[in-house]
């Protein structure tokens, strides 16, 4: 399970705690006033058709992290490692020889992909047009490896792995990676590219600040897994690529509870979070609140350290003295 999965269950301990202590009604009102007049300036082309929106959303997040300078992507690395391990496990089943080879080839392509992503992250910005197109395609493929990692505890990643093995995967890593990126429709790559171009302006104040991507927290294990998008200069940011940002209250509270969950699970204040925010990629808009304002608007009746202590006690009472 993960924090987002736990928040989808209103009966989970973390959902119950956040609903009781941080109902979020005032923040929803403030958020509604902030987004009600926003225009969705980056619309996906109609011809995207049956687009895997979760994959594109993850890809945008990854591309933003690269632009901010991230060179390490733990979830992608874990997805690659799972493919490699799965290929070795299948070695005992001769009937799956081709699948085993394709998984191993996909893992080798993933190693190459991670290196190329790190190269682009360290390169002078902005990238030339051809490299930007390549970076967008790499992020879409990377999102598929990320999906493998996310799906392992849910269904063993069977469906996510199948994406890499449904057609023959070349034995040479460069050719294998090229087969993955070349199969991406240009409209998908352009969609990522347009969003990152907008983000370079909207997030300019965060560029160059101390960066932690995919942050985990002292209490992450108490909800199965909790991993934020990034923290830049003390600002915890969650990236959302929705077309319709003016959310119904229930969905908006889920977004706010996700931020609140990360903030409170940082029991020891290891990340020294001073503000939280939501970046709307298709509206090129960053909304931030200081921790004090965020908690006030969420309806907190006690300070942050007390909320953290109470959440820890609710989720792991045996660890609280």
Tell me what the structure shows.
With 321 residues, this protein is of the alpha+beta class. It folds into 2 domains: 3-42 and 205-319, no CATH class; 46-200, no CATH class. The protein is built from 13 helices and 5 strands. It has helices at residues 3-7, 13-21, 25-35, 53-68, 74-89, 97-122, 129-155, 158-165, 173-182, 186-202, 249-265, 291-297, 304-315, and strands spanning 211-213, 230-232, 235-240, 275-280, 285-290. A 5-stranded mixed beta sheet has the order 1-2-3-4-5. A hairpin with a 2-residue loop joins strand 2 and strand 3 (235-240). Helix 7 crosses helix 8 and helix 7 (129-155) crosses helix 10. The longest helix is centred in the middle third of the chain and has 27 residues, at 129-155. The radius of gyration is 20 Å and the shape is globular. The model has no long low-confidence stretch (mean pLDDT 93).
Work out the number of β strands: 5
Order of helices and strands: HHHHHHHHHHEEEHEEHH
Residue share in helix? 55-70%
CA-atom Rg in angstroms: 20 Å
Rounded to the nearest angstrom, the distance between the terminal CA atoms is: 26 Å
Strand-residue proportion: 5-15%
Give the strand line-up of the largest sheet.
1-2-3-4-5
Number of domains: 2
Poorly predicted parts: none
Shape call: globular
Number of helices: 13
Q: Largest beta sheet, briefly?
A: 5 strands, mixed
Structural class label: alpha+beta
Would you tell me the overall average pLDDT? 93
């Amino acid at each position: 399970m993960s924090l987002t999965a736990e928040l989808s269950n209103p009966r989970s301990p973390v959902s119950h705690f956040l609903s009781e202590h941080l109902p979020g009604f005032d923040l929803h009102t403030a958020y509604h006033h902030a987004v009600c007049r926003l225009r969705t300036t980056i619309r996906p082309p109609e011809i995207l058709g049956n687009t895997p929106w979760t994959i594109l959303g993850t890809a945008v997040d990854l591309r933003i992290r690269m632009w901010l300078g991230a060179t390490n992507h733990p979830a992608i690395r874990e997805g690659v490692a799972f493919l490699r391990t799965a290929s070795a496990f299948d070695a005992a089943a001769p009937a799956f020889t081709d699948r085993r080879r394709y998984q191993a080839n996909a893992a080798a392509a993933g190693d190459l992909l991670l290196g190329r992503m790190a190269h682009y992250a360290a390169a002078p910005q902005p990238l030339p047009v051809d490299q930007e197109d390549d970076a967008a395609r790499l992020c879409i493929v990377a999102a598929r490896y990320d999906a493998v990692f996310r799906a392992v505890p849910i269904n063993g990643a069977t469906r996510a792995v199948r994406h890499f093995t449904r057609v023959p995967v070349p034995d040479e890593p460069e050719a294998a990676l090229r087969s993955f990126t070349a199969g991406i429709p240009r409209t998908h790559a352009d969609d990522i590219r347009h969003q990152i171009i907008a983000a370079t302006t909207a997030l300019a104040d965060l560029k160059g600040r101390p960066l932690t991507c995919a942050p985990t927290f002292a209490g992450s294990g108490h909800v199965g897994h909790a991993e934020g998008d990034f923290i830049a200069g003390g600002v915890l940011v969650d990236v959302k690529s929705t077309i319709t940002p003016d959310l119904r209250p229930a969905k908006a509270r889920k977004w706010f509870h996700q931020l609140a969950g990360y903030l409170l699970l940082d029991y020891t204040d290891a990340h020294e979070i001073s503000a939280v925010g939501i970046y709307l990629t298709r509206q090129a808009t960053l909304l931030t609140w200081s921790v004090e304002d965020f908690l006030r608007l969420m309806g907190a009746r006690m300070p942050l350290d007390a909320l953290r202590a109470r959440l820890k006690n609710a989720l792991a009472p045996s660890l609280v003295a």
